[in-house]
Write a structure and sequence with these properties.
Largest interface: A-B, 38 and 37 residues
Distance between the termini of chain B: 55 Å
Number of strands of chain A: 10
Number of strands of chain B: 10
CATH class of the largest domain in chain B: Alpha Beta
Largest sheet of chain B: 6 strands, mixed
CATH superfamily of the largest domain in chain B: P-loop containing nucleotide triphosphate hydrolases
Number of helices of chain B: 11
CATH topology of the largest domain in chain B: Rossmann fold
Shape of chain A: globular
CATH topology of the largest domain in chain A: Rossmann fold
Order of helices and strands of chain A: EEEHEEHEHHHEHEHEEHHHH
Strand content of chain A: 15-25%
Radius of gyration of chain B: 21 Å
Number of domains of chain B: 2
Helix content of chain A: 25-40%
Strand order of the largest sheet of chain B: 6-7-8-3-9-10
Structural class of chain A: alpha/beta
Number of helices of chain A: 11
Strand content of chain B: 15-25%
Oligomer: heterodimer
CATH architecture of the largest domain in chain A: 3-Layer(aba) Sandwich
Distance between the termini of chain A: 44 Å
CATH superfamily of the largest domain in chain A: P-loop containing nucleotide triphosphate hydrolases
Order of helices and strands of chain B: EEEHEEHEHHHEHEHEEHHHH
Structural class of chain B: alpha/beta
Helix content of chain B: 40-55%
CATH class of the largest domain in chain A: Alpha Beta
Chain lengths: 279, 289
């Protein structure tokens, strides 16, 4: 697997007289994967996101994006072109007075020719299915639609990595589904690499790989079923296990043996069916 | 204080080309001490509705009676300040409204404004800071050195310091991590019980709605489309699906079990424990056969 981002032993604090927010964090992000980074409020997840596209620079250690080091001033724009971030609040990231203008913003900044720009705008709004809203004003859109426009603005620049920094946490359930479906489609059809920073473990359960952060450190990493085996550890650091897993754990305590970990309700009900046949 | 809403209608920008009807024909009564939950998509009118309950917005049509206060379209209620003492609103992201130098001053701001003596207000602050899960040493600190979750607790203490009898919560847990969400909701429920409050919760969380509510109201396009206790509301997943709303996971689980095991199970299952009991009951059925 091709490694797109390498974080090597990174420590960071916002000011010299303040405690470190990240301590010796190392991790890799591979091409085409959906990586979920989970942790409670204040665990350092969002700070890490800002280091991944050079919005903040490490105090110690290095962040490499496709070989470019964020410490290197010449590289910073190469990195920002490759890594786009969708932030939490849909109202804080709209700059244009219409959907079209908003998507154009990043392209204009990159000095693209008008013809090519129009093409890119149309292409990217189609990918997030917002083509019917090109002339709409931002305040007329729902939260989910605003976040999709933010995604369009990012993918118009053809990044290789999109970071969702709690991008669905302010949305209602329908908006959340919209945004996640849009990103899954981009990952599957365009081979986009997705880093999703979240405390929604239901969403994390569907990732290819999971990184768990606590108090500024990476405390675990692996595929979801492996990480979720350590249910006690996740609960201890303030995260909620997905509901099917909670039911399964309660039943295991009552002496029922499951053949595998169930991360969805469907799997759980199937396991219960098998158990019932056995007894 | 009982709340009675009759024929309430609200239009934004009345009489301008931008006029937009946000609420139409809302009839609702909430008796004192009820835990009332309001659910609906963004833009369904929930926030517009709750802003009528302390006179921040005036009805374009209809009336709202809260205890002996009456807010009526076209009539000026002179006692709005007195009403606002009884109705506390915790807005979305209340931590954005902190402004004082110390946490104590921030909590005192409301009660002092309503004429509570400084001694009494300080007593309340000392008690409340603990109730929201922080200790007294925080009172002298700046609210801006706290984490987001702690700031929210301070903001909540500031609303509680006015001793409202009706507490309105507009998505009070948005953006918090799971533990923070649980702690804040447990706090509100404890206050609801201990202080005999009338609580009105606006939420997207079906789990919270199922667990805490006496009554649930579902809004769409400025009107009420469904109303009932949690059992009634969640016994009809199809109706909710048509409104693109979810049912709580416990309820989804029960429906899946019923389908797979072809067995009738109790429907008012809103806690993990009750869901586990339901699973045990289908497994034990296997023992008998």
């Amino acid at each position: 697997m091709e490694e797109l981002i390498t974080v090597q032993d990174v420590s960071f604090r916002y000011q010299e007289d303040q405690p470190h927010v990240l301590h010796g964090v190392s991790l890799s992000v591979y091409k085409g994967e959906w990586l979920a980074i989970v942790g409670h409020n204040g665990s350092g997840k969002s700070t890490l996101a800002k280091l991944l596209n050079g919005l903040q620079l490490p105090e110690k250690g290095d962040v490499l994006v496709e070989g470019y080091n964020s410490r290197d001033e010449e590289s910073i724009w190469e990195i920002r072109r490759r890594v786009g971030i969708v932030f939490q609040n849909p109202d804080n990231q709209f700059v244009g007075t219409s959907v079209r203008d908003d998507v154009a913003f990043g392209l204009e900044n990159s000095g693209m020719a008008r013809e090519l720009m129009l093409e890119r705008i149309n292409e990217s709004v189609q990918k997030v299915r917002m083509e019917d809203y090109l002339d709409q004003e931002p305040h007329r859109l729902s939260g989910g639609q605003k976040q999709r426009v933010a995604i369009a603005g990012i993918i118009a620049l053809r990044p290789s990595i999109v970071i969702l920094d709690e991008a669905t946490s302010m949305l209602d359930p329908a908006g959340r589904r919209e945004v996640l479906q849009t990103m899954r489609k981009l990952k599957e059809e365009e081979g986009m690499t997705v880093i999703s920073i979240t405390h929604d473990l239901e969403e994390a359960a569907q990732a290819d790989r999971l990184v768990v952060m606590n108090a500024g450190e990476v405390i675990d990493e692996g595929i979801p079923v492996e990480v979720f085996k350590k249910g006690d550890m996740l609960e201890q650091i303030g995260l909620d296990l997905p509901f099917p897993l909670q039911v399964q754990r309660a039943l295991s305590e009552r002496g029922y043996d499951f053949s595998r970990l169930t991360l969805s309700q469907e799997e759980l009900v199937n396991e219960l069916w098998t158990l019932q046949l056995k007894v | 204080m009982d709340i009675t809403i009759k024929g309430l209608e609200h239009s934004y920008g009345k009489g301008t080309p931008f006029e937009r009807k946000a609420l139409s024909n809302i009839n609702l009564s909430i008796s004192s001490g009820t835990f009332q939950t309001i659910i609906g998509h963004t833009g369904s009118g929930k926030s517009t509705l709750i802003q009528h309950l302390n006179g921040l917005l005036k009805p374009t049509q209809g009336s709202i009676q809260i205890g002996d206060f009456k807010i009526q379209a076209g009539v000026k209620e002179k006692r709005l300040k007195a009403l606002r003492k009884h109705v506390g609103i915790v807005f979305q992201y209340p931590e954005h409204q902190l402004f004082e130098e110390t946490i104590e001053k921030d909590i005192l701001f409301g009660p002092l404004n309503f004429g509570v003596s400084e001694d009494e207000a300080k007593r309340r602050a000392a008690k409340l800071i603990q109730q929201v899960g922080l200790d007294e040493s925080y009172l002298s600190r700046s609210p801006f050195d706290l984490s987001g979750g702690q700031m929210r607790r301070v903001a909540i203490a500031g609303v509680l310091a006015m001793k409202p009898s009706i507490l309105i919560l507009d998505e009070p847990t948005a953006g918090l991590d799971p533990r923070g969400r649980r702690e804040i909701m447990d706090l509100f429920y404890r206050l609801h019980e201990e202080e005999g409050l009338t609580t009105i919760l606006v939420t997207h969380s079906m789990e919270d709605a199922a667990r805490f509510s006496d009554d649930i109201l579902i809004m769409e396009k400025g009107g009420v489309v469904l109303q009932g206790n949690p059992e009634t509301i969640f016994s009809n997943p199809e109706a909710l699906k048509n409104l693109s709303l979810d049912v709580p996971e416990t309820v989804q689980f029960i429906h899946r079990l019923e389908e797979r095991f072809n067995k009738d199970l109790p429907h008012s299952v809103f806690t993990l424990k009750a869901a586990v009991d339901a699973a045990l009951s289908v497994l034990q059925k296997g023992d008998d056969s």
